[in-house]
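haha ok so turns out i had the wrong file open the whole time. this is the CORRECT one, sorry everyone. sequence first:
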Amino acid sequence: MILGNSSQRSLFVWSAIFLSIWPLVFWDNPFFWDTVLFSRQADWYLQSGFSTLILPTELDAGHPPLWPLYLALGWKILGQHLIVSHLLMLPILIWLAWELSHLVTQFVSAPHRNWAMACAVAVPGLLAQATLFSNDILLAASLLGVLNALQKEKYWKIALCLSLAGMSSLRGIMIAPAVLMYAWIFFPQFRLQFSLYLWGAAANIPLVVWFGWHWVQTGWLTHPISSNWSSQHELGNLDTWVHNFLTIGFRFADQGRIVLWVGIFWVWLHGKWKYSSELTQLIGLFLLLTLWLSLVFIPFQNPPGHRYFLLEFILLAILSVQIIFQTWPDSIKVKILVLISFLSGHFWIYPESISKGWDSTLSYVNWSQERLEAVNYLKENQIPPEFVGSAFPLVHSGKYTHLNEEVWRFSEMDLSKNPYILYSNLCNGVSESTLKILNREWDVERSWGSWPVYFILYRNPEQFPVEPKQTPEMAIVEL
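then structure:
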């Protein structure tokens, strides 16, 4: 049957309905964090009339252009609006629900499937990324599609999903070898099937064509040495490796996942582990993908974020449910505790010195209102944006975050030049020493919000009086 068995159909229907409604609840949620890059790239495609697929160097982060092109085409047809951006996520989220329902049906025993599906959907990174125009949702759906296609021996689907994963993100290319290793280990019947290798080669054709064309047009594959992202691709030293290793460990314990590890450890310690071929295969899949992706990220300067491991977190949710719930099959308290551990992940807010995965929890969503109040205050007091220093993710213009007429942006934070600093605890990149200077030597002009997100406008008392002025850019802002 095209919709699978009754259990799979039930899981798919309710999860698809939820994941279809969820982004519409946040229909006016602006672009945030790294998704702003897609907004900028899509706007460039739109304004250039799709004259070329090669992005300007300042917008080219090295990823294939599938995702920003999808956004640009959606805007071209339906209009350049926030709600359109969220509507474009619906097909991807429904596909994700379809693949998740198949995976849960395959690996989780029948009594626990609804809980496993609920916990997988409740993964903080998934719920948070579903409120954004996120290619990580496409990447997760594509890789789940590969895993499910292996079970059904659908070679054409394996090729299609691998192509989509690679064309949506460089991480899709990075993780593909781990998926193929999983197939080689757990599906020995494929090793001598020549047709599988042909379809695997076909999956690489779009990537080879794209990167070949990109090389011819630009002279580089993923990024030029002078690009904004070049430092992220540089190899680090031993300290960097240790830091990234510990960071990855923290990511897998953060956002409530420590509860899952405690539960799994308790089951193992008390000898209540119930072995099965499905469980062994699921554990092998989780470990293989996690270890491979960790080895890819550890050597480089860019610390891995929570969303980089979204697929692994989803697999961990399914795995933990199967292990823990088989030990306490009739305990509603245990089931509720596990589900609450996922939901609690949105409220794990740390001190300023510890970077948070803001785009992987719903704690970020009120940032737009706080920013609006800060911008209105600047307008009312005729403080031009070039006087105000800030940091990622606040430096972007509203043209690319809110899709409005706000064409200006704040200056990059420089305490020696900026009369004002607009700081938020969203700004992971602001050092602890800078915060100490701001709090000790600068005046607090105004603050907005409290928990979980707050904004503070600092004023340097040594650079005043500064004559306020109304600039045309600030005058036309309508939020």
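Residues 475-479 have pLDDT under 50 and may be disordered.
again sry for the mixup
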